[in-house]
Q: What sequence folds into this?
C-alpha cells in the first residue's frame, strides 16, 4: 500500500504526430548531446542536427506514410499510463504522467503537470528495459536539467534505471512468444531477437546495453525452455560509425541462404509499437525475408498494454518505493 501521494513518470522517445512533424522530430533527436557528442557541441550541434534531419526527413516521411502517417507511440504510451493507473486503488493515490524526449508532451510539459499535483514522491520510469545512455540516460538527464530549474525540493525523486531482468517483464515476452509459436503448426522456427542497435563505441566506453540485452534473451530462453535455434541481432543503424553486430539484415539473409522454413522475430528492446516495429520489422524485414527465401516470417507483437507487462511495471514501482522507504 502506498501511503504518500505518488506520481509515476513514464518516459519514452516520442514520435511525430503527423507527416509535417517528422523533420522537427528528427532535429530534436539529433540535437540530443547523449546521441551526438561532438567537441564544441553547443556551437556545431544545431548546424549538424539541421543538416541531418533535413536530409533524412524525406525518407523517414515515406516510412511513416506506410504506417498511417504518424507514430502511434503517444497513443500507446497514454494507454499504458491509463492501464497502470487502474492497477492502483483510489486509496493509494497514484497518478501517472508521460514525458517524451523528442516530441510532445516534452519533459518540461510533463514537469508542469507534475508540479500541479501536490506530490510527495515521484518515480521516474523510462520505458527502455535495457539501460543505455542514449535512451534511459538521455531521458533521465533531460528530466534533471528541467527539474533543477522548476522542481521542488520537498518532492522525493526516485528513478528506476533499468529492468531488463524483471520476472514480470520476462514473463510478458514468454507469453507473447508462446502465442505466436502455435501458428507454426508444430514446426520449430528460428527465433530472432532484434534489438535497437547503438554504436560500438558506447559499449566500449562502458554502456551496459549489450550485456543487459544478452541477459534478457538468456532469461527468456530459460523461461521458455527453448531448445531450438535462436539469434540476437541489432537494427536501426544510423551513420557510418561501427554499430553492434550482427545486424538483423545479415541474420535474415543468412537464414534465407540456409532455406529456413520459419522465423519468428521478437522486438526485444521495444515495449511499444512504433516505426522500428511497424515499418522496419513488419514491412522492410518481412519483404527481405520473403526475398531471401524464408518460407514463413512472423513478428511477435510488442508488449504495449499486455496485462502481465502492466502488472510488471506496477511491481517495479512498488519494489522501488519500498526499498527507498
A:
Amino acid at each position: 500500500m502506498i501511503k504518500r501521494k505518488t506520481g509515476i513518470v513514464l518516459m519514452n522517445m516520442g514520435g511525430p504526430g503527423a507527416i509535417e512533424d517528422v523533420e522537427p522530430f528528427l532535429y530534436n533527436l539529433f540535437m540530443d548531446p547523449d546521441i551526438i557528442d561532438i567537441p564544441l557541441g553547443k556551437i556545431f550541434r544545431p548546424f549538424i542536427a539541421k543538416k541531418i534531419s533535413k536530409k533524412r526527413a524525406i525518407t523517414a516521411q515515406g516510412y511513416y506514410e506506410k504506417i498511417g502517417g504518424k507514430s502511434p507511440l503517444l497513443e500507446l504510451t497514454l494507454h499504458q499510463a491509463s492501464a497502470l493507473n487502474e492497477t492502483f486503488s483510489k486509496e493509494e493515490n497514484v497518478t501517472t504522467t508521460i514525458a517524451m524526449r523528442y516530441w510532445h508532451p516534452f519533459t518540461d510539459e510533463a514537469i508542469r503537470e507534475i508540479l500541479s499535483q501536490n506530490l510527495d514522491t515521484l518515480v521516474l520510469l523510462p520505458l527502455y528495459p535495457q539501460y543505455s545512455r542514449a535512451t534511459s540516460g538521455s531521458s533521465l538527464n533531460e528530466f534533471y536539467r528541467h527539474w533543477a530549474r522548476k522542481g521542488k525540493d520537498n518532492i522525493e525523486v526516485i528513478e528506476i534505471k533499468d529492468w531488463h531482468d524483471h520476472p514480470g517483464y520476462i514473463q510478458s515476452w514468454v507469453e507473447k512468444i508462446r502465442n505466436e509459436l502455435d501458428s507454426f503448426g508444430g514446426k520449430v522456427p528460428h527465433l530472432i531477437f532484434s534489438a535497437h542497435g547503438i554504436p560500438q563505441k558506447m559499449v566500449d566506453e562502458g554502456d551496459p546495453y549489450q550485456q543487459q540485452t544478452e541477459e534478457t534473451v538468456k532469461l527468456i530462453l530459460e523461461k521458455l525452455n527453448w531448445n531450438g535455434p535462436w539469434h540476437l541481432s541489432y537494427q536501426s543503424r544510423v551513420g557510418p560509425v561501427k554499430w553492434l553486430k550482427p545486424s538483423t539484415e545479415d541474420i535474415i539473409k543468412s537464414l534465407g541462404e540456409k532455406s529456413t522454413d520459419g522465423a519468428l522475430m521478437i522486438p526485444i528492446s521495444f515495449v511499444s509499437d512504433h516505426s522500428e516495429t511497424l515499418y522496419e520489422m513488419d514491412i522492410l524485414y518481412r519483404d527481405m525475408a520473403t526475398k531471401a527465401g524464408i518460407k514463413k516470417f512472423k513478428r511477435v507483437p510488442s508488449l504495449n498494454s499486455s496485462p502481465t507487462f502492466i502488472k510488471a511495471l506496477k511491481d517495479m514501482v512498488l519494489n522501488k518505493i519500498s526499498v527507498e522507504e
